[in-house]
From TrEMBL:
InterPro entries hit by this protein: Apaf_helical, Disease_R_plants, LRR_dom_sf, LRR_R13L4/SHOC2-like, NB-ARC, P-loop_NTPase, RX-like_CC, Rx_N
Gene for this chain: LOC104588693
Pfam name, any one: NB-ARC
Name of the protein described by the UniProt record: Probable disease resistance RPP8-like protein 4
UniProt source species: Nelumbo nucifera
Residue ranges of every copy of the Disease resistance protein winged helix domain listed in the record: 425-494
Domain Disease resistance R13L4/SHOC-2-like LRR, first and last residues per copy: 577-887
NB-ARC domain location: 178-340
Domain Disease resistance N-terminal: 10-87
Amino acid sequence: MADIAVREAIRKFTNILGDLSLEEGIRFYRLDEQIEWIRKELDETKSFLIDADAKQEGDERVKNWVRDVRDFAYDTEDIIGTYFLKRISWWRRKKRLFGFLGRFACICCDSAATHEFVMQIEGLKRRSEDIKRSRDTYGIECNVTEAAAGEVAVSFQQRREYFSKYIEPDIVGFVEDIKVLKERLLDERIKYCVIPIVGMGGLGKTTLAKKVYNDVKPYFHCHAWVYISGKPRLPSYILEEIAKKIGLKKEEWEENVEKNLLSFLKERSYIIVLDDLWAIEVWEFLKEFFPDTMNGSRIIVTTRNHDVAKHVAQGSSPHELGFLSYNESWQLFSKKVFPDDGIGRFPPELEPLGRQILKRCGQLPLAIVVMGGLLSLKDKAEHVWLRVLQCMEGEANGECQMTLYLSYIDLPYYLKPCFLYFGLLPEDLEIPVSRLINLWMAEGFIQYQGQLRLEDVARGYLDELIYRNLIQVAKRSFGGRVKACTIHDVLHEFCISKAKEDDFFGIYRNLDSDANAKMRRLAIYCSVCSYISLNHYTSKLRALLCFQKDWESLEKDQRSKKELEKLEIEHLRFIYTGFTLLRVLNLEGVQFEDLPDEFGILIHLKYLGLRDTKFKSLPSTISNLKNLETLDIQSTNYYSVPSVIWLMTQLRHIILDFYAELRNPFIFGYRMDRHRAVDKVSLPNLQTLWMIQGSSLEPSCLCEMTSLRELKIHGQIMLHSKVLSTPKAISDQLENLQLEGRTQFPFPDVPVIPALMLSHYGNLRQLVLQGKLEKLPNHDEFPPNLTKLSLQSTNLLEDPMATLSRLLNLRNLVLGYWSYLGNKLVCSEGGFPKLEVFKLIYLDQLKEWRVDGGAFPQLRALKIKNCEQLDMLPDGLRSITTLTQLELNMPERFYSRFQRNGEDWDKIQHVHSIITWQYGKAKQI
């Protein structure tokens, strides 16, 4: 962590040299020379930190030296950041003042501040000399040379490519557990039941529950997975989470979630998982909203507490999870240590040591997979493994804790802060990878590696943490890329404990806080105002992350919502004026109407997250945030964003939603500029532009976004689509494009998306087209490497299969709502050579579908929904031996043909999983 602090201080010194060294006052004090001296000292110290990081766990003196370096770097950054703020404040005041006296006063203040800055720099120089002397005394060595730096970049690229291809192996063990649980869940004789899975932490309760949940959820009308945890959480918030996931509308879970949830579940069969339940009181509250209507509904509860399990079981036996058998433990361990082998074959010379190490893991799955991840990256040499075994025989608080500790110590220095950062985020959070990476970047955790983008380097970091089995994959894209991740609750607790030991971050829940004056990062899981009211000593914060989900966290105050809103706004103003050094500000769930103008004071801010805040507008002072890289606004109300964001050159990611309205600041009056477009853009670093209204952006401005990777435009997009189709690609790096056109009243038959020519976008993998197409592009006008295509409301009259079947890399195809208005589809021989997933949804006019032999040679999943006039499945399905999943939601007459021994049964009898839907109820054939 000291390495990050030093790198950020060096960056700040470099910036101040560039910004201030030309001024006469600075040259008078010869400040530029002193700043450069400190910068070089920090740069030199950084090269010693790798060696110190490796030595500090066994040497308390080295650990204290690393802490001194970190504090020195933090203090250096504080001094620079504060001085920057003062200079900018005086510069703005100087512009507003007239006359000799006003300007003279500003010059005096400026000179006094510069003199103070000089004195502080002198103090830093003395501390730097002390650190240097201690370094020599403790024998800390320099580990990085220029040649080594080049080798590190090459090595990282190789490791990144390797880790990115890693896919988690199948679950080991639990075979009998899975069988027993699925039988109980799908037994039609049981009309309602609650199944608790109980066992100590790390046994695999959540893994087991997730496996059976994913397998059986198609058989229920609705389903939800909710994480409870032992941390204080409002029961009403848990109900809201369930309501969202089972499909209640926004107004239903916002207004009266208890009544609407109960009413909704009474009419449907459901399966709900309550993961990590600790308290009987929480169950007693929640169970009132899980009605027993004798329709086969199920509830799964995972818990470490046997008393909770017995209480929840309602007289039946909880499913008690034990340790893995020795053979299962060895099989799991082998697969994790040698993941490339497939079957995990141990070299004979290492097997005895491997078995001794496994014995130390106590047949606990979590300990086994983490230790396996550690050994998988170690040299396969006896002396290396023997050293690991000797460490495990040292002092320990238990097998699992020692394993986690060793795995953390073994992490490269650049991965440690990235791993600990998971402890700062809520325990139950399924973290979108893009969001996590943006946070890491804003914190300064990511280092440039050769020509790689920082985002790609960060993905390499995450892939390595996954490979080490410290982080779990929650979602993957169709191409195998990790989309969301999560962390085991035991590892989450370890991160919090280690972070507290290192003063890395603090967490505030109600009146329980572990924050202190040295903290640079803080997460607030309750009311922001309650923290600020009690703790004014964390003014040096670099990151403030709020996860306030709703107003009920302040229920006990018995104030009206209006009073609470006023309270929040007052405390928001304090955030901007009291925490002026912030680089990360996430106000998720904090309810307020507007951001104050003081918001522009946060000139160091790199990440701004305003999800679910329901604010109405951003102030124009956002233009002062010259370092802002990520603007993440996904609210649930209409809000306006000033058009000055188009001129903020450092922005890399702009994430809006359907409700965003951009205003033009160059036109007077809100009503006049409401629908006007900006005709100038300066965003050379922009990589994500998500959910932007076409009317808010001049189409030609897309050509200025040369780094764009993800683009989603909705509304009036005809001209934007034409710009995308010009011979020169707007960005060679574009990977994901979504065009959602809106039909213009009163011209419903007029196309909203023109003829497209996208063949010059070689990196474009995902394409979504929604809205009436002028014409379907020819196969050679589509991106050549397209893997996923979704068409919705495109109103095609001609059969698109002749064209789409020639897209050689297409793996996922969705013909959605009213995409095709014809009555016949023909898939010719050899078509769709790589397609794996095919979905036909709401094709009202489709009557016949023909599949010739040799089509779909790799198809594994097929879904047909609400194609009301289609009477039968195509004969060609017989020859698609790769097909393993078939899901049908069709009229009853459609099903009669392929019941077992029916006239069409032979077409699909080879399919492993066939699920049919009728009246909202799933059934497996």
